[in-house]
């Protein structure tokens, strides 16, 4: 039996260097991505007078937890949190229902205006949401939708449906049609096919759509300030405005509010990371 020769080819050494460089690059990217969160929570524990200076980060000495107490007491955080949760939940429900129904109709059904309809819906992805701020305000004012939850729900859902349907259609393209054909042969109707076959398969795509829609709706500020002028209907991002004065602002409380707003987004994204990756990359390769 001949002894196994050691492979000292340059390719092996380059591969190791490549892996080390890639690991270093990814580490730097992770640090760059996490730094804004560290900066946010760090500044949320500072006194208002400590914000001015040349230091990027300042260690709170001592941490001023009173900023969070002021945020909850003076910004009506529980009420605004509930309003944001309600708006997001209804918007996500509309987005999922429309995206799944339209995605199935555009990928599985054959009808005359299918391709023009798909192109028209996809064109909604290139329209900036704030380009419709003034027209929506005028329309909502005429029909009496200002100062209502639907003034936020309708534009939120409308601008998320094209992106969501793009994800759903990409995922549906990877689903074998043989599953549906077998179900139809067994006598299953279209609603039964949609609810019992398609929806369980679309769970990763639905999770992706839900998380992306939640992040977009939860953090939106401009429309929430423009369309809602009643304290009992305002959403959570408006809480920052409560600590803005004409001559001075409570910066510590503002950062505390921003930290509170970011916590649900961080937790939801962490919880659904695997589903998001599967839902986004499903349509990349057809098989």
Can you walk me through this structure?
The chain has helices spanning 10-43, 66-74, 77-108, 114-123, 133-143, 150-172, 177-185, 190-201, 203-218, 222-227, 251-271, 273-281. By secondary structure, the protein is mainly α. The chain is globular, with a radius of gyration of 25 Å. The two termini are 44 Å apart. Mean pLDDT is 82; it is low at 9-14.
CATH topology: MetI-like fold
C-alpha termini separation: 44 Å
The general outline is: globular
Q: What is the alpha-carbon Rg in Å?
A: 25 Å
Structural class estimated from helices and strands: mainly alpha
Helix and strand pattern: HHHHHHHHHHHH
Do you know the CATH architecture?
Answer: Orthogonal Bundle
List keywords for this structure.
MetI-like fold, mainly alpha, 287 residues, single chain, globular, 12 helices
List the helices and strands and how they pair.
Elements: H1 10-43, H2 66-74, H3 77-108, H4 114-123, H5 133-143, H6 150-172, H7 177-185, H8 190-201, H9 203-218, H10 222-227, H11 251-271, H12 273-281
Helix pairs in contact: 1-11, 2-11, 3-6, 3-9, 6-9, 7-8, 9-11, 9-12
Can I get a quick summary?
With 287 residues, the protein is mainly α.
């Amino acid at each position: 039996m001949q002894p196994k020769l050691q492979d000292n080819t340059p390719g092996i050494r380059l591969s190791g260097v490549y892996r080390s460089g890639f690991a270093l690059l990814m580490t730097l990217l992770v640090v760059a991505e996490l730094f804004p969160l560290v900066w946010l929570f760090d500044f949320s524990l500072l006194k208002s007078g400590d914000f001015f200076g040349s230091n990027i980060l300042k260690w709170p000495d001592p941490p001023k937890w009173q900023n969070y107490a002021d945020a909850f007491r003076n910004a009506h955080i529980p009420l605004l949190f509930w309003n944001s949760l309600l708006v997001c939940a209804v918007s996500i429900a509309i987005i999922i229902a429309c995206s799944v129904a339209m995605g199935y109709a555009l990928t599985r059904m054959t009808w005359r205006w299918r391709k023009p309809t798909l192109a028209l819906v996809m064109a909604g992805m290139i329209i900036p949401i704030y380009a419709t701020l003034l027209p929506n305000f005028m329309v909502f004012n005429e029909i009496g939708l200002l100062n209502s939850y639907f003034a936020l729900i309708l534009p939120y859902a409308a601008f998320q449906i094209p992106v969501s349907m793009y994800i759903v259609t990409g995922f549906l393209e990877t689903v074998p049609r043989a599953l549906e054909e077998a179900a139809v042969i067994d006598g299953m109707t279209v609603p039964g096919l949609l609810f019992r076959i398609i929806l369980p398969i679309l769970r990763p795509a639905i999770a992706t759509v839900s998380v992306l829609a939640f992040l977009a709706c939860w953090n939106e500020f401009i429309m929430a300030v423009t369309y809602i002028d009643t304290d009992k209907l305002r959403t959570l991002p408006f809480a920052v405005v409560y600590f803005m004065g004409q001559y001075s602002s409570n910066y510590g409380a503002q950062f505390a509010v921003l930290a509170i707003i970011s916590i649900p987004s961080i937790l939801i994204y962490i919880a659904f990371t695997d589903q998001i990756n599967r839902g986004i990359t499903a349509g990349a390769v057809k098989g």
